[in-house]
UniProtKB/TrEMBL annotation:
It comes from the Bacteria. This is Xanthine dehydrogenase. InterPro entries: Ald_Oxase/Xan_DH_a/b, Ald_Oxase/Xan_DH_a/b_sf, Ald_Oxase/xanthine_DH-like, AldOxase/xan_DH_MoCoBD1, AldOxase/xan_DH_MoCoBD2, AldOxase/xan_DH_Mopterin-bd_sf. Pfam families: Ald_Xan_dh_C, MoCoBD_1, MoCoBD_2. Residues 23-137 form the Aldehyde oxidase/xanthine dehydrogenase a/b hammerhead domain. The keyword Metal-binding does not apply. Gene3D superfamilies: Aldehyde oxidase/xanthine dehydrogenase, a/b hammerhead (3.90.1170.50), Aldehyde oxidase/xanthine dehydrogenase, molybdopterin binding domain (3.30.365.10).
Amino acid sequence: MAAPATRYAGTRVPRVEDTRLLTGHGTYVDDVVRPGMLHACFVRSPFARARINSIDTSAAVSMPGVHAVLTAADLNGDVHEAWHAVAGKDVADTPRPPLAEGEVKFVGDPIAIVIAENRYLAEDALELIDVDYDPLPAIADFTRAVGHEAVVHEAYPDNVAGGLAGAPPDEEAFAAAAYVADERIYQQTHVPVPIETRGLVVEWVAATQELTLWASTQTPHELRAFAARLLGIPAQGVRVIARDTGGGFGQKVVPMREDMCILLAARKVSAPLKWIEDRRENLMSAGQARHVDGRARMAFDADGAITAVDIDFIQDIGAYPTPYPVLTTAAIGMFFPGPYRVPKSSFNYKTVFTNTSGLAAYRGPWQYETLTREILLDIAARKMGIDPVELRRKNLLRRDEMPFFNPNGMPYDHVAPMETFEQAVKILDHEGFRKEQAEALAQGRYLGLGFSAYIEPTGAATGHLATEGCTIRMEPTGKINVYVNGGSSGNSIETTVVQLTADALGADIADVSTIQGDTAVTPYGAGTQGSRSGPMTAGAVNEAGTILRAQLVAMAAHVLGVPEDDIELANSKATSREDSSKSVRFADLAYRSYYEPQQLAPGMAATLEATARFTSQTMIHWANATHACTCEVDVTTGRVTLTRYIVSEDVGPMINPNIVEGQIAGGTVQGIGGALLENLVYDDEGNPLSTTFVDYLLPTATEVPPIEYGHVEVPSPGVGGYKGCGEGGAIGSTPAVINAINDALAPLGVTVTTLPATPSKIVALIEAAAAD
């Protein structure tokens, strides 16, 4: 049977979900209403660290409309198992109680739940709960947390959750180097800030022992499995429904403590239970991201070739990280050599508890490695007196050098970092910009150019991430439904699986629809995380599509009286290659299969449905990109204006260029925010100071120039050659912006190494440089 001809993959098919979303017909968790539904609110700690002496709930419980007030004594003992599939049940994890018990560990720590007939009553009842606290010393500054007198968890007396070291640094290489770039680089806390905050509606039916969840989640099947483990009930009695999700960006990959609480509480009330987080709660309690401080070094020979790199850092993981922060932080050290020809690399890190909200996943959690490396490269270039473009050209890996093992053992292959870099340089017109920059400087204007090159693992195929399921069903009308775990998280798997399925079966795309996010009808999948959706769902659709295609060909060959290898499937019909007058529509095949199965060939199954699992044989699909940014800095006010932004990215063949570019744009804007604006600030006592959008500043259209795209397509060894593209924009953009600012301010002797690069910080650096 001939392979299907591609008709839709690679084209700019309009997103199938846009009509409902843009016309206000999306379904989010807060749109879900169940009969008799109750509402939950959390009592949260006003202290960063305090002993809980007592909780008096009597006044709240007696308030009309309040159904229950639950504390740790009511919930925490009901936990059966609370591990996440990201690392599995046998990996040691950090503490994570549903409600604070005995001691609160950060401002916003949930200590009780009020359940009432509506949200207004629940919030009023919060004010009636009397909690007797005994404040204790807290530590909010993670750079001082190791060995601090304020101990976050008794089991970790030095506040170190763990760490890891690779090979020790080759100090001789640094001592012998012609040039060394050596900087302390600090990245602030900034967070995903999804448009839709976290939320759940949980309905427990005691009579049937069935639990239904409507959830804002990136991983419906993992949430289902987690709920079953947590409550100690059979997984087949749990159903998760994830309709539309207003952004996740990693924050909604794993169930957090509040999710645990709502699941536990739902079995203690006689009606469905809804919890929706408000924006203040989200910024205060939904998890921090980034927040790393470290010393990074790069050594170069006289010709500018890298001879050794080293990074030694600590990462703030807050009080209750989710999950396994010691392991996930290792990626920063492992990936630090980046897409460069690095012979020696070393790293060392610690993950540190503080009395702040816990570390959570955020689009490219290892991004600090790219930030530090790319800043160092520009600093080194200025020391050498050469353009950062020339320094990168000397050291970037080429396609003909693949496969290439970085010194930490990461196996790069099927990538071309030099090609994406040169494409970005060409789009920019590097020489033209340098001329413009010099002319502007003569006029007293400060323009800058920054580059950032990175390589990232996508479609990570380890553990439960290594497999994905798909069901494709042709209905009696000949129309086709494709069922995948998926869910509407913004990455448009809805559109891409329709494209892939139409190609796999030779169907007209208008005849294909998709059903996603409902664990009752979709096969198990690990969900939206790790830039895996593209390559993994493509593999799953290919597996199921191949089975169903073979069945369609066999049926059509019997109906048309021709050999199977003479059948071509296209435009939702089967046609004889030798005699095009012989054809049969999919609708006619489906009618015969469902309503006249006796007309099929003897022994032929009447099945027009296939379910299959794809297991990836490729552990990592490497993607890479170069970001280029130009800016102008007002040296009087410190304001940064971005003037151009270019991304040249290799994500393999693109299933849908519109979606790829949309993913790049979204991540890029988040990285711009992390470079210039966003900062989740705490004071010395651990009080959060930026829990509203008045204080936590987000980028808008006025801060972001039009993004220009270049594409290099180096296929991966996986199905279709596809790679993931969800995280790259957020990885590459922050260092590109910081490098552009530093390039602009280089004539003044100013280098930004502490983020974000706010106007006040830039002015202070300029003034300090002038004073010297």
